[in-house]
Design a protein that fits this description.
Shape of chain A: globular
Distance between the termini of chain B: 34 Å
Order of helices and strands of chain B: EHEEHHEEEEHEHEHEEHE
Strand content of chain A: 5-15%
Distance between the termini of chain A: 32 Å
Radius of gyration of chain B: 18 Å
Largest sheet of chain B: 5 strands, mixed
Helix content of chain A: 25-40%
Strand order of the largest sheet of chain B: 9-12-1-10-11
Oligomer: heterodimer
Radius of gyration of chain A: 22 Å
Largest sheet of chain A: 6 strands, mixed
Chain lengths: 578, 201
């Protein structure tokens, strides 16, 4: 991965392809790469859909190697949803394939002067950019079927659905999985709209004839990688809980805690939670010939995904994630697992962020556009988005715009991005991260529960109120660093409890890069990425006032525990005071 | 608490089908408690769980919806609801762990010292089992017997009737009965003792 591919979609005479050396971006991967490029090259005040914005697609530092769990890929841009910097990441096959092709990043620049839609093919021979208006209006599933007919199913694809073509702020970028289905998405913040504005429908990656990336110290890497995979398998979360039930194992627990946002964050408990829990989905998947234990890319040890079949035993979608089940389920008062799976399939096909879509429908339901619990209405509303009707375009613009259009005060967003599946009144520490992350409300922005193990932030007394400010800071730093490696954040659970697995991970990275990763190095990398992001947002006009939850979270008590968000503005302003 | 005889429903079916009843254990079933005691003592004495299993496996515990950190000292009694889970993924999942590093994140919904006790003395406790815990101790619990409402029994029979390819026998107070005969009792009784017996007689 020693080069960057730039494609100027607005060049005179048609798209122009150039290949650069890494230059000042050497040593960066994943989120580190995307945020550095956006911060340095994109004018912060530009319109997100303008030629000045860029879409950066970057595999992690380890992607394309044999390192277990290293298949994450980052997509960066100025967000059409938040107006700030955005990094959304995804699983799927693309990170590994792009890594083997040798590219540390693809950067889409400019925009076509007409409405032509392009497909890009990248293989070891080079890059071709071809106009193909026949792809217009295709959902991701039909698109991938077309690509399969022309290129086979050994390639990997990065694509947009109709929502991206319409440049809707909730549009996602899709990545194909091991079965060549477009089930993995960089969803948050609307990167699909930016890809649409560049006139790119699909990027086809073909690594035929490309070798796996070689570690600097093969023996150390191989041994450490083997031990690391074994460590993941023996841990209760990464080796048992996630493989058995997926991330949706959380539904019952978060509901029991009274922290499951229900009916547009009106209460923390949903009566129908058990019906849509991970345990229920796993049983359904087994009974219908699906599979509750499946990876999203080759090299995945944890296998937290799954395959969901409909009532006739036919593939419908991947196993919906916890956040998707919450967004389309409890948040909308819907307790039918088949309906939620159908909505997940539609989201993936149209190319929309499932979290933003579910939160938006919740707001629309509060406005009276439909009744909470009305499954048919929820399906109809998502179809409106896919078709691009006026109502659909409003909904596809996200919860905040929908709230404005329909006059709803209770809109659960930060920096214009909807909150995910954890009510910050019950779990205040995640509210700190929602409020302060440069990304807008994002549960994964402070996800790396290994912050202390990684040595980020030194000693913190977590049992003090101030502890959650410090912990959120340290978590965000550690997460930014892990997001740069291409590692799946779920490795954090095993690392938290098993010191030997932590050492094995360090040895994998050290063996691959030829230099040891230190605690200081992790902290420095994480801070550097967050500094890029905070600096961009400041220049885009963001201030401390944007690092806040909506006021009603401090006023309206959340049943059943009747709690409000109590972290003060002054405390929130200390998060990035390092 | 005075013991009152309630109808006993025994379901006999092969082991692989037991999981069809797990959702009901997640919704919550009632178990007797002989006196107010610490949660760990309850789990070991009344549910007959191994103390090492309780310590290592049951990482996430809720009492009346509040996250518990110290299962030795927090008391449980008649009328309480206890939920049990293995360690969970995600930052929020990690924050709900007993005495975990991120427990301050959910301080608002933690069970604190001096918290008013909901339950008192001997009687019945509602127990909810989730994820790995339900698959590991659920079958044993069902063999020991759990108290469920008439409404839940109707749902249980409905779920069992979906297992069309599985041979299932019912007994009502130790006498062979059809599911219809049991359902006819539901309107007259408010609760039942449900037991499973693995392997057909």
């Amino acid at each position: 991965m020693d080069k960057i591919l730039r494609i100027n979609m607005g060049a005179a005479g048609g798209p122009r392809v150039t290949t650069d050396s890494l230059g000042e971006y050497a040593g960066l991967g994943g989120r580190g790469m995307t945020s550095a490029v956006i911060a340095k090259e994109v004018p912060p005040l530009c319109h997100p859909l303008s030629a000045d914005n860029k879409l950066v697609i970057a595999p992690g530092l380890l992607s394309g190697s044999a390192a277990a769990q290293s298949g994450r890929i980052s997509v960066g841009c100025k967000s059409p949803l938040t107006g700030g910097i955005k990094e959304a990441n995804s699983g799927g096959q693309a990170a590994q394939v792009l890594g083997r092709l040798g590219y540390a990043a693809i950067i889409l620049e400019g925009k076509p002067s007409d409405g032509t839609l392009y497909k890009i093919k990248i293989n070891k021979e080079g890059v071709t950019v071809l106009p193909d208006d026949s792809l217009k209006g295709l959902g991701n599933y039909d698109l991938i079927d077309r690509i399969k007919a022309d290129h086979g199913d050994k390639v990997a694809c990065i694509s947009i659905g109709t929502a991206g073509e319409m440049k809707l702020p909730a549009a996602s970028v899709a990545f194909t999985d091991m079965e060549f289905r477009p089930t993995r998405h960089a969803g948050r913040g609307g990167p699909g709209a930016v890809m649409g504005s560049k006139g790119v429908k699909v990027i086809i990656l073909d690594d035929a004839g490309c070798p796996m990336r070689s570690p600097k110290n093969p023996e150390k890497f191989k041994e450490a990688n083997k031990r690391f995979a074994q460590g993941l398998k023996r841990h209760a979360v990464t080796g048992q809980g996630l493989p058995a039930y997926g991330t949706n194992v959380l539904t019952n627990i978060i509901n029991e805690a009274g922290a499951l946002p229900t009916r547009n964050f009106a209460t923390g408990r949903f009566d129908g939670a058990t019906k849509i829990s991970g345990e229920t989905y796993a049983e359904l998947e087994k009974a219908r010939g699906g599979n509750p234990t499946h990876g999203c890319h080759r090299g995945c040890v944890i296998q937290c995904s799954g395959i969901f079949h409909d009532k006739n035993g036919k593939f419908l979608t991947k196993q919906p994630e916890y956040e998707t089940v919450w967004a389309h389920g409890g948040n909308c008062g819907i307790d039918d697992p088949d309906v939620i799976a159908q909505l997940d399939r539609m989201d993936d096909d149209f190319g929309i962020d499932t979290i933003e879509m579910g939160a938006t429908i919740g707001v629309a339901m509060e406005a009276g556009v439909a009744q909470f619990g009305d499954s048919e209405a929820a399906i109809r509303l998502v179809k409106e988005v896919g078709k691009g009707t006026p109502l659909g375009r409003i909904l596809g613009s996200g919860a905040e715009i929908t709230g404005k259009v329909f006059g709803v005060e209770r809109v659960p967003t930060v920096k214009g991005q909807s909150m995910p599946a954890y009510d910050p009144r019950a779990v205040q520490g995640i509210g700190v991260t929602y409020a302060t992350s440069p990304m807008g409300a994002d549960h994964t922005a402070g996800y790396a529960v290994t912050a202390n193990v990684l040595g980020v932030g030194g000693t913190v007394n977590p049992l003090t109120p101030a502890g959650q400010i410090e912990l959120s800071r340290n978590l965000q730093i550690a997460t930014a660093a892990i997001d740069a490696t291409g590692y799946c954040l779920f490795i954090a659970f095993a690392i938290l409890d098993q010191p030997d697995t932590f050492q094995d991970m360090l040895d994998v990275i050290g063996g691959f890069l030829g230099q040891d990763l230190t605690a200081d190095g992790v902290t420095e990398l994480g801070k550097k990425i967050l500094s890029f992001e905070r600096d961009f947002n400041a220049r885009a006009g963001f201030t401390a006032k944007d690092d806040r939850l909506p006021g009603y979270f401090q006023r309206e008590a959340l049943p059943p525990h009747n709690v409000v968000f109590q972290v003060t503005d002054k405390e929130l302003d200390q998060v990035f005071n390092w | 608490m005075k013991s009152v005889a309630i109808p006993r429903i025994t379901v006999l079916f092969p082991q692989p089908s037991v999981s069809v009843l797990f959702p009901f254990l997640s919704k919550g079933v009632q178990l007797p408690i002989s006196r107010s005691c610490g949660i760990k003592e309850f789990l070991c004495r009344e549910l007959l769980l191994d103390p090492d299993y309780v310590e290592s496996r049951i990482q996430t515990v809720f009492l009346n919806g509040r996250a518990v950190d110290d299962i030795e000292t927090v008391m449980i009694a008649n009328g309480d609801t206890l939920a049990l889970s293995a360690a969970m993924p995600g930052l929020v999942g990690a924050s709900f762990r007993r005495a975990g590093r991120y427990s301050v994140f959910r301080d608002n919904v933690s069970f604190h010292d001096g918290e008013p006790q909901v339950g008192q003395g001997a009687g019945l406790v509602t127990v909810k089992l989730f994820n790995l815990i339900v698959s590991e101790i659920g079958p044993t619990l069902l063999q020991q017997g759990v108290r469920i409402s008439a409404k839940m029994l109707a749902e249980v029979i409905g779920a069992l009737n979906t297992l069309s390819e599985t041979e299932i026998d019912f007994r009502l107070d130790d006498q062979p009965a059809t599911s219809e005969e049991i359902l006819s009792k539901i309107s007259r009784e408010t609760e039942f003792l449900l037991r499973i017996q693995v392997g057909l007689s």
